[in-house]
Amino acid sequence: xxxxxxxxxxxxxxxxIDEIHRITTKPWTLMEICGGQTHSLVKNGILExxxxxxxxxxxxxxxxxVTSVSVIDEAVYLAQQSNVILCSFGDxxxxxxxxxxxxxVKAAGADVRILYSPLEAVMVAKDNPDKEVVFFAVxxxxxxxANALSVIHAAKMGITNYSILASHVLVPPAMExxxxxxxxxIDAFLAAGHVCTIMGMEExxxxxxxxxxxxxxxxxxxxxxxxxxxMAVQQLEKANTK
Length: 242
Hints:
With 242 residues, the chain is an alpha/beta fold. It has helices spanning 10-23, 35-43, 46-49, 63-66, 69-79, 102-107, 118-127, 144-156, 171-179, 193-199, 204-211, 222-240; strands spanning 28-34, 54-61, 84-88, 112-114, 132-139, 162-168, 188-192, 215-218. Helix 1 runs parallel beside helix 12 (222-240) and helix 7 (118-127) runs parallel beside helix 8 (144-156).
C-alpha cells in the first residue's frame, strides 16, 4: 500500500538508527507528544534501538491522562441522573473521579454507553427522544471537529435532547507549561502529525523560538518516528556546536 510500506521499511529504519547513533555526542531528552507515538515507540522496540544517551519521555498527548477530576465528576453526576444517557469513548470509563468512575456507575445501573463516534450519540438521541443524551467530548485538537460536527448534525435534524460535555485541550499550551517549569529537562519535542493536520504548525513556531527547543512533526509509523528523532538530534547537535 502506497505510503504505508514505506514507513515500515526495515532497511530505511536501520539507516536512521545507525545515523542517530553516529551523530549523538551527548545526552538528549526528547518528548513525544502523542500517546499514539508512545504506543508505536514501545510496540516496535524503538526505545531499545536508540543510543543509551537519548531518553524518550512520554508526553501529555492522551485525553484520558489530561482530563481533570472535576470534569470526570461532572460526567459521573450526569450519568447518575435518571433522565440521562451518557455516551463516551471506552477509554474514559475507568478514569477515576473524586469518588467513582463511569464504569462503576454503569455497573450500578446508569445508562452509560460506549461509542466510537459522537455522530453515533446523535442517533442515540434521535432514538430516545424522552432522554437527555450527553456525549462526553474529550480530547485535543483532533477530536474537536467531529464533536462540533455532531452538534451541527443534531441541530439540522431538529434534535433538541442532545448536548456535549466538552473537555478540550490544546497541545502548544501544554508544551509551554512543560518548558516553563524550572525543573524541565526536555531538549526537543516530537509533535503529532494528525494534530497539525487540524491546526497547522504556526502555533509551534513561537514556542520553539521562545525556548530554543526544536519541534519536529512526525506520524506514528516506525520510520517516520525514527526520522523525526534523527532530525531533532541533528538540530540539537548543531546548536550544541555553535
